[in-house]
Amino acid sequence: MGEKVFEHTLLETKKVNKIFGAGKKAVHAVRDVDFRMHEGEIISLVGQSGSGKTTLSKILLGLLKETSGKIEYKGVPRNLRSQKARLAYWQNIQAIFQDPFSTFNQFFRVEKILNDCLNLQGLGYLPLVEKQDKMRNACQFVNLKYEELYNKYPFELSGGQMQRLMIARIFMMKPKVLIADEPTSMIDACSRSTILDMLMELRNENRMTILFITHDLGLAYYISDTIYIMESGQIVEQGSAEDVILHPQSAYTKQLVTDVPKLREEWVLD
Ligand SMILES: Nc1ncnc2c1ncn2[C@@H]1O[C@H](COP(=O)(O)OP(=O)(O)OP(=O)(O)O)[C@@H](O)[C@H]1O
Ligand SMILES: [Mg+2]
């Protein structure tokens, strides 16, 4: 893999906190998180269930409001106050969620879901044939047949088809940053590697920056440049994938690494 040097910071959090609720029931889901994504970098965020990974990713996306802290995009404090500003932000930052049902409006047909990507990019004015061409292309990229699906609702698709449809959207949107929250958890190992291949292809074509959120330390080691380890809302370790896996510093990371005994041998590919 070799260590790469990343220069341009895209998205950065400074001492970000998220507290759900108040009083005795308050949950401090994200604690003082400093996190940085560079252009072209692949980052994995690893931690056990409930450690705050999805909460952090929703804050990055602007779907949840942080309780305190700063978030900067390209070195400038992020502004999501107007709908226009939010739409502009979401042209750059897109996500694939754990649960594809939560990604799609269940009342929209596939055709509308894809067409909305074009609208979001300001391509709503294109003639219908051209739009259909683009939608067909995106489906082809993820091995879906547009003709068979355009008229269907999300609940009429299989889990794998929905995952592919999410990637078709990314193909159309070409965001600078993609946040993928356990994108492969619903599908079998074979489609899993196909989907990872698709994401990597998109990344290479568009120099996309990707944040993978996963429980799978082996996968994280295999695909990422940088790994962040999260425990109880805090980042307890961060560094190059090699450093974090081969020379873990925190007790928690050491535990995670020993829980996957064959990790080091299996994933050393060079
Ligand atoms: N909307 C919410 N209201 C109250 N508490 C919440 C809310 N969303 C998350 N939490 C709590 O915040 C903590 C972090 O949850 P989060 O979903 O970020 O964990 P996670 O690391 O993504 O877990 P998993 O690996 O299971 O997806 C948990 O204790 C969770 O119960
Ligand atoms: Mg989660």
Please explain how this structure is put together.
The chain is an alpha/beta fold and 270 residues long. The protein has one domain (9-267): P-loop containing nucleotide triphosphate hydrolases (Rossmann fold). The chain contains twelve helices and ten strands. The protein has helices at 53-61, 83-92, 100-103, 110-120, 128-141, 146-149, 159-173, 189-206, 217-223, 241-246, 251-259, 263-267; strands spanning 9-20, 27-38, 42-46, 68-73, 76-77, 93-96, 177-181, 209-214, 226-231, 234-240. Strand 4 (68-73) and strand 5 (76-77) form a beta hairpin. Helix 4 (110-120) runs parallel beside helix 7 (159-173). It is globular and about 55 Å long. The model has no long low-confidence stretch (mean pLDDT 88). Bound molecules: adenosine-5'-triphosphate and magnesium ion. Residues 53-54, 98, 181 line the site of magnesium ion (MG).
If you compute it from the alpha carbons, what radius of gyration comes out, rounded to the nearest whole angstrom?
19 Å
Give the CATH level 1 class.
Answer: Alpha Beta
Q: Which word captures the global form? A: globular
Quickly count the helices: 12
Listing every helix as H and every strand as E from the N terminus to the C terminus, the arrangement reads EEEHEEHEHHHHHEHEHEEHHH
Query: How helix-rich are the residues, as a percent range?
Result: 40-55%
What is the CATH homology-level superfamily?
P-loop containing nucleotide triphosphate hydrolases
- Average pLDDT level: 88
CATH topology: Rossmann fold
Count of folded domains? 1
The N- to C-terminal Cα distance equals 8 Å
Low-confidence stretches: none
Main sheet strand line-up: 6-7-8-3-9-10
